[in-house]
């Protein structure tokens, strides 16, 4: 699931950069919703889907996406029926998913699922993934004002005619799709980091929502490009380098604006 050892092909790089833009935008609202740890846990929900896909000999990304969407529906449904915090619900779902996933995968397959593997991206998959990334990006840009209002005050949002529950579900779906886009490159363990770390750095650097979105996208794209280049030069997996570069940006933002 990760571009690793050889030179990066154009479909892989294009999909990785599109994924980075989506991750930067989605991550801003995850940080503002205080989903920092929960967002990372949500990416782990893909693990049992990957395990089942490998067991049934189908594309692991199909299983991962199906399980992410199912997990998103479960988290949203439990949260809105019980009013338990989304972080708590995701934590429970994450624990169950990790346990189930460990039953279906083992050895090298489990390592690839957690950290990514080395299969190149076919052109058709790059095109489909690019379309999904564009859809996620368009949703965040179009719905950003509604997302902010519902975040500040759900009551005011409802008074303004915003369907908060439906908007929350749409955002969680966008998050799940972004995770699915990045599983090939970063794996289950690291994908949540690319969503959260650039947004956390952007929050320290920006003075407005527009600035935060711009900074987050720039850091996510720069981290993905630099991490991919370093991995190609050093003949290692891409995911760890991408996350390390993003972490370097975060610590630089801490030093820049104390």
Describe the structure.
- The longest helix is centred in the last third of the chain and has 42 residues, at 164-205.
- This protein has one domain: Orthogonal Bundle (ABC transporter involved in vitamin B12 uptake, BtuC), CATH 1.10.3470.10.
- The chain is globular, with a radius of gyration of 17 Å.
- Residues 1-7 have low confidence and may be disordered.
- Helices cover 83% and strands 0% of the residues.
- Helix 1 packs across helix 9 (164-205), helix 6 packs across helix 9 and helix 10 (209-234) crosses helix 11.
- The relative contact order is 0.19.
- With 258 residues, the protein is mainly α.
Taken as a percent bin, the fraction of beta residues is under 5%
In terms of quaternary structure, the protein is single chain
**What is the fold named in CATH at topology level?**
ABC transporter involved in vitamin B12 uptake, BtuC
The shape is globular
Low-confidence stretches: 1-7
Order of helices and strands: HHHHHHHHHHH
Describe the biggest sheet? none
The CATH class, by name, is Mainly Alpha
Number of helices: 11
Mean pLDDT: 82
Rg for CA atoms: 17 Å
Total DSSP E strands? 0
The CATH superfamily title: ABC transporter involved in vitamin B12 uptake, BtuC
Q: What is the total domain count?
A: 1
**CATH architecture verdict:** Orthogonal Bundle
Structural class: mainly alpha
Distance N to C terminus: 37 Å
Helical amount among residues, as a percent range? over 70%
What are the salient characteristics of this protein?
globular, 11 helices, 258 residues, mainly alpha
Secondary structure layout:
Blueprint (H helix, E strand, L loop, with lengths): L9 H23 L3 H8 L2 H10 L4 H23 L3 H19 L2 H9 L7 H30 L1 H6 L4 H42 L3 H26 L3 H19 L2
Helix pairs in contact: 1-7, 1-9, 1-10, 2-5, 2-9, 3-4, 3-5, 3-6, 4-5, 4-9, 6-9, 7-9, 9-10, 9-11, 10-11
